[in-house]
Write a structure and sequence with these properties.
heterodimer, A: 1049 residues, alpha+beta, 6-stranded antiparallel beta sheet, 39 helices, 25 strands, elongated, B: 434 residues, alpha/beta, Alkaline Phosphatase, subunit A, 2 domains, 7-stranded mixed beta sheet, two-stranded antiparallel sheet, 30% helix, globular
């Protein structure tokens, strides 16, 4: 049975099959040498040398030159071929003299013993690994990991070739040419364009222009603000009382306190927090609120210190139900309108402009002018008596001193004498003089105006009675009708207008206040109110920050960025957030170079304003703006050496090891040289950076070759790269770098630990796409254009997801240390909604990918049921059992067919009517010359015939029953899976190990790797086939950790 | 052939190699590099274009017989009817090395070199004859050669041979397939964009200085690989040094000094017909402006997955090639039309008494005769006058002749470029009739 199996495997061309049993004691080379001379050489002479002589060299094989075993050992590969040719019966050719079965066995037996001995003797040879350039994928990933930005620098590079075990990470295939090196130069320069120079160094950005970098930072600042505030559009000037007379000028955005949410939180959790059942922090966390502010609000609402403005709010809060949050917030907002005003700051610094955007206002006066227009009688209407009232209220603090004088209430009309109202006064007040009346608030004086006085205006002023009311406080108003008066403070409202608005900016600012509080200067009453207002403002600023940042409030602005966020910092930010915010602002100013731009902006404005009266108001800005520019230039210059230092630091990472002193000084030297060529700092910096990306140590995975002929371990730094390029297709991250610096990475425990850690990292997705997808021959399937659009219009839409499936499948396997047998037999799949639909699997909806289990009974699970694989191994319009069969044969089982006959008969792409694809192929494959190979591969394909050319299950049942070349009958995907898993498990596992090993080493697997492959297989079998076992065995192997000596023969 | 890159021939060594200079008047454009006394010439250089179509042609319709205007063409060649008097139909040549490997990629990677191909995961072919011409005359033009493709290459290994071989017929050196430009816009930029920037040279210098230091610490194989890079960088550097000196050209001047078509849009055109057409336009423009004199245009890969919905044929090319039906014929004609299109355009460019077609050699070929992998005789058509050196209107049939190597053809063609080699690939003979 063992022999039978051996022959079969060799028969189809596995280079070195399971014949080499590592455990067996190998024959000695002395003995082998004697046998060669005595038995083997004569056989060769008799049956082989006629063609394979040094003269003829047929098939480029010269067997004559193998005069001794020493010669044989020098070219082991030829003997692998000899074994292959003997086994598949190709040699000696049919028309030559054939050896007897005994002779054949003798020859083959010797070759086998020799190869076995040779494999053990050379075991662990690191092998010939050709210097590797980063391939396109590795280059891209390395750049991404270095810069932290998702750049795609190799988009227009030529596709890499594959070599070794069929992977693009093999030195042989990574060719170079002037055209490609030019592309590297361009790519390097292009990447360097994405560097953003900062005060202390540089970072990379997805963008390559100053404009975009500026926007990027602005967005970051706004995002940070946005974590705390609601950015509310203040609307245009009119909406908030003509802050700017330009109705269409937008005031921009303010970051407002999301008060309602905070009130809602305090109301909903009032009892829980009061009783100590829940902390403020817990409530804040639950609701995504700022704990600091919520705490401040809570203590203000529950505080007992009397406050004229807050007491009412507290009382209402205590009574409020959870649904009253909005009403409470509205209360606060109403008062905010009386306590704050917004100023334009687009021309901050000009003569007469305010210094702040959000400014506190105290709505208090000593005297209040009041006017009320009596409506005129309209045409055709009966003239009517009109009732108005002069209302004085106590401003909510009791009425002990609240004596208010209504001064000379009178009706005025243009061109007519004023009419004093004293004759109509009917109230409790007593007359002070002939024209004015004094009352004690709360008091209402109602006046009936005769019909014939309609159209006149009532004019008066309210003030405290100077002798009795020094500590009084009242609010006065003139209203129509007869109002009821209530004690209490009424909310004031501030209105700001500009007396004039020119084409450039808003001019003198007039502030008016409705329902102010009338108090005496320096009175205790005033102080009490002021303190109450401060308390309100402190707790409820009308805005926490200026989220607009870029002012739009003037027609021409010279303030490019304006920062006002002190309320936010005070109420909500912790130290880390504050310093992050400060850093962003510093970067914004540095990166945008706003100080320099402002000079131009201002000069442009001034040029346009020359001769205009407002020129003088703006001109004083020039001094400070120019001064700021000078300061900024110094700052820029001071940053230059720091940026160059950062570049050298960066190069350490790019070189994947510390730079030598020479390298560092050459890098700095290049920068200086470029500066001497009159390149500005920015350009010289970028070119020096580009130089890092085209340098040999970055672009190539240079490893120092030991002198002498013995293999030696690579350095810890080199090992770190071997590890990271194997598992991540990219540079090592921080941990292995630190270990390499300590020279402790190479210890087996550390190496295994790092490998295990890296396997769980998201970057292992790259191993999935680079290793698994290349192995399975679906690499780049997302761009596949091989399907007929007419027959499969849905294919173009689905191909990306089809490709994503195996990538996710293998990523999942690596990260979770899954079994490699799942490749054949998984009962789970990673699916998206459309892919699930494609597979007829119900219950998958929504945008996210997910792990779906129980898919085997739905015809999926493992690679055999994946659309990408089924589609890739199909024609444009029909399935191809030959391609699929050959794929199972070569890719999953690692077998090889002899060369097809010289001229392959034609085969139509569309299946003729009346035939199935299977029947078509079967007919094709009956030619005896063809049948030899087709019998080996086609049956696997027939078993998968239930799937159409884009991997869907066919609606009608296909004939998937088929007889394999070894006589076994299987049916459908289940049968094939069962067969591979049981009968061919060894071959599959070996193939997986071989491919993974070849990928990890970047070379073809060779005879001396045989013991390692055997070790991997044994460990896998013993440990439940966990993929991590295979990776760990490789990583700890000599092959992986060592390098061949320079003088190796 | 690396040495061609590293040490550009001075005119003197070049002339020595030539023996007789009279036959090749166009080389005067090289005078800028050397002999100041050379008389400026008035004749245009001879351009070389190689067009490749993968997977062979229809088994019965690739044929021609008769001479001159009376030549009868098989249906595949119908688009060349107007050019019968200007073409050589060459039949029966083969490439011995291509028969040794497997199928497809191992038949293609050495089509223009006749070299043995490495298998088993390694990559090695030979410098292709077009690149020999490019390395000799490249220094006279903005780019040494233009290597274009209309189908993305596929990584991977097919039957023990890298698929690189399927997508690359031009090889700058045995280890290095000349990268294929797939993007029309980038090909255009290579020809016409002046991309050397201040400081580039210093950067490249620094890369070379640093790179050289590693040479002593690595194995000889690695050193070869490293040198491949450093030489490439040096070559880029040399081109930067030379940029801007083209104005010194004496004697013959191209009829066009800047592009007369707009830069193509970025990206790869969705429609294959449009893609091929753009590449053909760029090829013609490159010759007309003398931005290069050597161009390889790979219309598709061997094992091609191109489809042709615009012809109403929605089947992959490779699969189609195994069907040999009317659709395949149509696709064959579509490929040959590209050659016809280029010929027609070149023929409309008057360069003194001759047209640009008279001053060109256009070779059209595949790596197998039919879709069934038959490489025992290869399909070849040669179009254009080669600067008066090729006399068309003939069918050359080598099927029964002893000397029927593709490499013999290349030796003959190289002769016409003054590159006289004793042997090339598997041949040391010429084809006298060419």
């Amino acid at each position: 049975m063992h022999i039978q199996r051996t022959l079969m495997c060799f028969a189809v061309g596995v280079l070195f099959g399971p014949v080499i049993m590592v455990g067996d004691e190998p024959a000695s080379f002395d003995k082998l040498g004697a046998e060669y001379k005595q038995d083997v050489r004569p056989l060769l002479k008799r049956f082989c040398l006629e063609c394979h002589s040094s003269e003829q060299k047929k098939g480029e094989l010269d067997l004559q030159k193998f005069t001794t075993l020493a010669e044989v050992r020098r070219r082991t590969k030829a003997w692998l071929r000899v074994a292959e040719m003997l086994d598949n019966g190709e040699m000696p050719p049919k028309d030559s003299v054939q050896p007897s079965l005994k002779q054949r066995k003798e020859l083959r037996g010797w070759v086998e013993r020799y190869l076995h001995a040779e494999a053990l003797a050379s075991a662990g040879d690191p092998g010939p690994v050709v210097l590797r350039r980063l391939n396109n994928a590795e280059y891209t990933y390395t750049i991404r990991d270095l810069t932290g930005v998702e750049l795609d620098p190799t988009r227009e590079f030529p596709i890499d070739g594959a070599a070794g075990e069929g992977f693009t990470n093999t030195g042989d295939a990574l060719v170079m040419s002037p055209a490609l090196s030019r592309k590297y130069l361009h790519a390097g320069k292009e990447i360097a364009r994405h560097a953003v120079l900062l005060p202390d160094g540089f970072r990379s950005s997805p963008y390559a222009t100053r404009r975009e970098w500026t926007d990027e930072i602005l967005a970051q600042i706004r995002t940070l603000y946005g974590e705390f505030v609601e950015s509310v559009d203040l609307g245009n000037g009119r909406a908030v009382g003509y802050i700017n007379g330009h109705v269409d000028t937008r005031l921009g955005h303010a970051g407002r306190l999301p008060l309602e949410k905070y009130f809602a939180a305090t109301l909903a959790q009032r009892d829980a927090v009061t009783t100590g059942g829940k902390t403020i922090e817990a409530v804040a966390r639950e609701r995504g609120l700022n704990a600091r502010y919520l705490g401040t609000l809570w203590s203000s609402l529950t505080g007992s210190k009397p406050s004229l403005l807050l007491d009412g709010l507290r009382a209402r809060w205590r009574r409020a139900k959870p649904q009253d949050a909005a009403a409470l917030a509205a209360d606060v907002t109403t008062w905010q309108r009386g306590l704050w005003s917004f100023n334009p700051i687009g021309l901050k610094g000009r003569k007469g402009s305010r210094s702040q955007w959000l400014e506190p206002v105290n709505p208090m006066v000593t005297k209040q002018e009041l006017r009320f227009k009596i409506p005129a009688t309209k045409d055709g209407e009966e003239p009517k008596e009109f009732v108005i009232s002069l209302v004085a209220t106590d401003a909510g603090d009791g009425n002990e001193h609240d004596f208010v004088v209504w001064r000379q209430p009178r009706l005025v009309a243009e061109g007519k004498p004023d009419i004093l109202l004293r004759d109509w006064v009917s109230a409790d007040g007593k007359a002070i003089d002939a024209a004015s009346v004094c009352v004690r608030a709360p008091a209402v004086i109602t006046i009936r105006i005769p019909a014939d006085l309609a159209g006149r205006e009532l004019v008066t002023a309210a003030a405290l009675e100077p002798k009795t009311a020094g500590e009084g406080s009242v609010q006065a108003d003139v209203v129509a009708g007869t109002p009821e008066t209530k004690p209490g403070l009424l909310p004031s409202e501030v209105t700001v207008k500009f007396s004039q608005v020119t084409q450039v900016f808003s001019d003198h600012r007039n502030v008016s206040i409705s329902r102010p509080i009338i108090v005496a200067e320096k009175s205790a009453a005033r102080a009490a109110f002021e303190s109450a207002m401060n308390a309100h403002r402190s707790l409820f600023p009308a805005a926490l920050c200026y989220t607009q940042i870029v002012p739009v409030d003037e027609l021409h602005t010279t303030t490019l960025f304006y920062r006002e966020d002190s309320h936010l910092a005070r109420l909500m930010l912790d130290d880390a957030q504050k310093s992050r915010l400060n850093r962003l602002w510093r970067e914004l100013r540095f990166v945008s170079q706003s100080a320099l731009i402002r000079v131009d902006v201002l000069e442009d404005l001034l040029t346009g304003m020359r001769g205009n009266a407002q020129y003088a108001g703006i001109e004083p800005l020039r001094g400070p703006v120019n001064q700021a520019a000078v300061t900024f230039r110094k700052e820029l210059a001071a940053a230059e050496p720091r940026q160059v230092d950062a570049l050298v630091d960066f190069a350490n990472r790019a070189y994947r090891r510390p730079l030598t002193d020479v390298e560092a000084s050459e890098l700095r030297g290049l920068y200086r040289q470029l500066r001497e060529q009159d390149l500005p700092h920015d350009e010289a910096f970028r070119l020096t950076l580009a130089r890092v990306f085209v340098s040999t140590p970055f672009l190539f995975r240079l490893e120092k070759t030991p002198g002498g002929n013995a293999a030696a371990p690579v350095s810890d730094w080199e090992l770190a790269s071997r590890l990271s390029y194997f598992l991540w297709s990219s540079q090592p991250d921080e941990e292995p770098r630190a270990l390499a610096a300590d020279r402790t990475l190479h210890t087996p425990e550390m190496l295994a630990k790092q490998a295990r850690r890296m396997l769980t990292d998201a970057r292992v997705r790259r191993l999935a796409s680079e290793f698994a997808c290349q192995w399975l021959d679906i690499y780049g399937f997302a761009e596949n254009v091989e399907k007929s659009e007419e027959v499969f219009p849905e294919f173009a839409r689905l191909r990306r997801e089809m490709y994503e499936e195996p990538v996710r499948f293998f990523e999942d396997m690596f990260r979770n240390d899954g079994s490699i047998l799942d490749v054949l037999n998984a009962d789970h799949a990673l699916l998206s909604e459309s892919l699930a639909k494609h597979y007829d699997i119900d219950g998958v909806s929504g945008p996210e990918w997910r792990r779906v289990t129980g898919v085997r009974r739905q015809g999926r699970g493992g690679v055999l049921g994946m659309a990408s694989i089924l589609a890739k191994q199909s024609g444009a319009a029909r399935t191809s059992p030959i391609l699929r069969g050959n794929w199972v044969f070569e890719t999953l089982l690692g077998e090889r067919l002899p060369k097809p006959p010289a001229s392959v008969p034609d085969l139509p792409d569309s299946v003729p009517t009346g035939l199935t694809a299977r029947q078509l192929i079967e007919r094709h494959s009956t030619e005896p010359e063809c049948a030899k190979c087709h019998a080996r591969i086609d049956p696997y394909g027939f078993a998968l015939e239930q799937y159409d050319a884009i991997g869907r299950l066919r609606e009608s049942e296909a004939d998937t029953k088929t007889k394999l070349v070894d006589g076994k009958t299987i049916e459908g995907i289940e049968g094939l899976r069962e067969y591979l898993l049981k009968d061919r498990r060894h071959d599959f596992v070996r193939q997986f190990c071989r491919k993974l090993l070849g990928y990890s080493l970047g070379r073809e697997v060779q005879l001396s790797d045989e013991p390692l492959l055997e070790e991997m297989q044994q460990k896998l079998a013993a440990g439940g086939y966990r993929v991590g076992t295979a990776v760990e065995t490789i990583v700890l192997s000599k092959q992986f950790r060592m390098i061949r000596g320079k003088k190796r023969p | 052939m690396r040495s061609h890159n590293a040490h550009p021939n001075s005119r003197r060594t070049f002339l020595r190699g030539l023996g007789v200079t009279m036959a090749l008047p166009w080389m005067e454009s090289l005078s800028v590099w050397g002999d100041e006394n050379a008389k400026p010439e008035s004749q245009a250089p001879v351009r070389l274009a190689v067009l490749f179509a993968g997977n062979g042609f229809h088994s019965t319709e690739w044929r021609a017989k008769g001479t001159g205007k009376q030549m009868e063409l098989g249906q595949v060649l119908a688009p060349l009817t107007d050019f019968r008097e200007r073409m050589l139909f060459i039949r029966g040549l083969y490439n011995a090395e291509a028969l040794k490997g497997n199928i497809h990629s191992s038949q293609t990677g050495n089509l223009l070199s006749g070299s043995p191909l490495a298998n088993g995961g390694r990559i090695r072919s030979g410098t292709s004859f077009d690149q020999l011409v490019a390395q000799q005359y490249g220094p006279s033009t903005k780019v040494p050669s233009l290597v274009l493709g209309c189908e993305r290459s596929v990584p991977g290994i097919h039957k023990n041979y890298s698929l690189l071989y399927s997508s690359h017929i031009s090889w700058s050196s045995p280890n290095c397939p000349t990268p294929l430009e797939l993007y029309p816009a980038l090909a255009f930029d290579r020809l016409f964009k002046d991309d050397a920037e201040k400081g580039d040279k210093s950067v490249l210098d620094a890369v070379i200085t640093e790179g050289k230091r590693f040479r002593r610490d690595i194995s000889s194989t690695d050193r070869r690989k490293l040198d491949e890079y450093l030489n490439s960088v040096r070559e880029v550097e040399r081109r930067i040094e030379r940029a801007g000196k083209n104005g010194e050209l004496q004697g013959w001047r191209p009829t066009l000094d800047k592009p007369n078509i707009p830069r193509p849009a970025d990206g790869v055109p969705q429609n294959i017909a449009e893609h091929m057409r753009l590449m053909c336009d760029i090829l013609v423009l490159a010759f007309q402006t003398d931005a290069t004199r050597v161009c390889t245009l790979k219309l598709n890969n061997d094992i091609s997955y191109l489809r042709f919905p615009h012809l109403g044929i929605d089947v992959g090319h490779h699969s189609l090639s195994h069907q040999n039906n009317a659709d395949y014929l149509k696709v064959n004609q579509f490929f040959v039309e590209q050659l016809g299109y280029i010929a027609r355009k070149l023929d409309a460019i008057q360069e003194g008494e001759r047209t640009a077609l008279d001053n060109s050699m256009l070779m059209f070929c595949s790596s197998m005769l039919t879709g069934g992998h038959d490489a025992t005789q290869l399909p070849v058509v040669l179009l254009g006058g080669g600067g008066g050196q090729i006399h068309g209107g003939r069918v050359l049939d080598y099927r029964d002749k002893p000397n029927r190597k593709m490499c013999s053809l290349y030796l003959s063609l190289l002769d016409k470029y003054g590159i006289h080699l004793k042997e090339f690939g598997d041949s040391n003979q010429r084809l006298a009739e060419v």
